[in-house]
Amino acid sequence: MINLKDAKSELFEFKGQNVITPWDRLKKYIFQSYPVVELDQEMSEDEMVAKAFEYIGKDVMVWMIKPGVKLRKDFPWHYRPNDLGKNFVNIFPKVGQRSGRAVGWGDVCLVPTNGVSHGTVKK
C-alpha cells in the first residue's frame, strides 16, 4: 500500500499555476468577444478593411455582419485566429438550416483593424 502523505510526488504539490475554471473560460471567450459591427450596405473586402481601421485602438479584429443576415444561436463568437490569421480577413459560411452545410460564404467576416489584409481565409 502506498502512503500518500510521505510520497513526494509533483502531482500533489501546488506550484502556483493558474487554475482555469469553466467560469474563467466563459469570461474569456464569450464576454470578451471582438466588437461586432452591423453594416448598413454591402461592402467589398477592401471597404471592410478600411471600415475596421476605425477600431484600431479598441481591438485587434472586428466582426462585420452584412445587412439582412440571420445568425444562428450557436455562432462561434469566441473564435480567435492564431497570430498569422490576424493578418487575413476570416470569412464564415452561410449554412443550410436543415443540413448544416455551407451554402455561401462572406456574410459574416472577422476583419483585422490594422488596415492591412493579406487575403481571405474561409473558416
Helix/strand/pairing category: alpha/beta
Helical percentage: 10-25%
Taking all residues together, what is the mean pLDDT?
77
Net shape: globular
Radius of gyration: 21 Å
Give the domain tally: 1
- Count of helical segments? 2
- Uncertain segments are none
* Largest sheet: number of strands, sense, barrel closure: 5 strands, mixed
What proportion of the residues form beta strands (DSSP E)? 15-25%
Encode the helix/strand succession as letters: HEHEEEE
Distance from N terminus to C terminus (CA atoms, Å) equals 53 Å
Walkthrough of the structure:
- It contains two helices and five strands.
- With 123 residues, the chain is of the alpha/beta class.
- It has one domain.
- A five-stranded mixed β-sheet has the order 1-2-4-3-5, covered by helices on one side.
- Strand 1, helix 2 and strand 2 form a beta-alpha-beta unit.
- It starts with 21 loop residues before the first helix and ends with a strand.
